Amino acid sequence: MELIERPRRLRKTPAVRGLVRETRVSKSALVYPIFVKEGRGIAEPIPSLDGQFRYSPDMLHVELEKVREAGVPAVLLFGLPAHKDECGSGAWDDEGAVQQALRLAKRDFPELYLITDVCMCEYTSHGHCGILNGREVDNDRTLEVLAKTALSHARAGADMVAPSDMMDGRILALRRALDGAGFSDTPIMSYAVKYASAFYGPFRDAAGSAPAFGDRRGYQMDYHNVREAVREAALDVEQGADVLMVKPALSYLDVVREVKSRFDLPLAAYSVSGEYAMIRAAGKAGLIDEAAVACEAAVSVFRAGADILITYYAKELAGWIDEGRIG
Q1: Is 55 annotated as a binding residue?
Q2: What is the mean pLDDT of residues 62-67?
Q3: Strand 53-55 vs strand 43-45: parallel, antiparallel, or unpaired?
Q4: Domains in the chain, start-ordered, CATH in brackets?
């Protein structure tokens, strides 16, 4: 038998590249985060997140129309109340910003899938993710208000709720509350692996949610740890989570891969505000090709194992998929 003298490789023509591509990106896997602010007539730019806005519920249609036109199927809503208090009561107010936005979006954009963030940090005067006992977060008391918030969102039309608080036992508390109120079909996307990260800075500015004292390292994860991520995800799976999430994304691709290899549930990764802001700023400064870098970053998340990408670039990525720059 005649031996081949040298290894042969496929000629990387455009057609061949498409046929043999290992990682594929679809619009159907994108989720776009939106900030909804209590009030009327509000469409204000967010300085720390260039290109992003805070919308009052009555103005949300401006953004949702763009989302629909881009072909992005899902949004993740964050609520910003007009007034904050110690217990974050605006979170479960049936006339709160998120609740109003859900009802309007369900009426006007029924094809969009509506996910809501369930947490307290945007609503509390102290900026922590739960009810305080002195200067510490009271885990069990917080579970009660998180469940009330999730129920309020489900009643207003949320298709999925996404607790981001990192309290112990929150998935079970939400599952029991939802099931008991007749929302057994409402899935839970758990922020199962949420690190105490400096990459959240622009979000905290956008939401006014920076802690008034201390930090969140007591309930968010140490970024040195991977095995802890597996333990946290396992607990949420046992308690009834339907989708797991790793947050942030780009500095934690090893964690994305590890969680995906361990659990047979859909896995989301959240490319957070700091990741977006860095790419955006470098692009505007002419230091990088913004579109090329954003596409490459998105592919890296899917290549690591994510099934869903939550990103402030969702609309642009949808357009670049249409252009054939990514896909």
Answers
A1: no
A2: 98
A3: antiparallel
A4: 23-323 (3.20.20.70)
Distance CA 297, CA 130 (A): 33
* Residue 204 is assigned to a ligand binding site: yes
Residues identified as active-site:
194, 247
Residue 129 annotated in ligand binding: yes
pLDDT digits 0-9 by tens, 217-251: 666 889 999 999 999 999 999 999 999 999 999 99
Distance CA 75, CA 64 (A): 9
pTM for the model: 0.92
Alpha helices in the chain (DSSP H): 14-20, 60-70, 97-108, 139-156, 170-180, 201-207, 227-239, 253-262, 273-284, 290-304, 314-323
Q: Do the strands 160-163 and 132-133 form a parallel or antiparallel pair, or are they unpaired?
A: unpaired
> What is the C-alpha to C-alpha distance for residues 253 and 305, in angstroms, rounded to an integer?
8
The pLDDT, as a whole number, for residue 22 is: 83
CB 208 within 8 A of CB 169: no
Give yes or no for residue 151 having a pLDDT over 60: yes
Q: What are the CA-CA distances from residue 279 to residues 35, 287, 295 (Å)? A: 20, 10, 11
- Evaluate whether 170 touches 222 at the Cβ level (below 8 Å): no
Consult the annotation and say whether 261 binds a ligand. Answer: no
Q: 127: which 2 tokens? A: 């900026």
Q: How confident is the model at residue 128 (pLDDT cuts 50, 70, 90)?
A: confident
Average pLDDT of the residues of the chain:
91
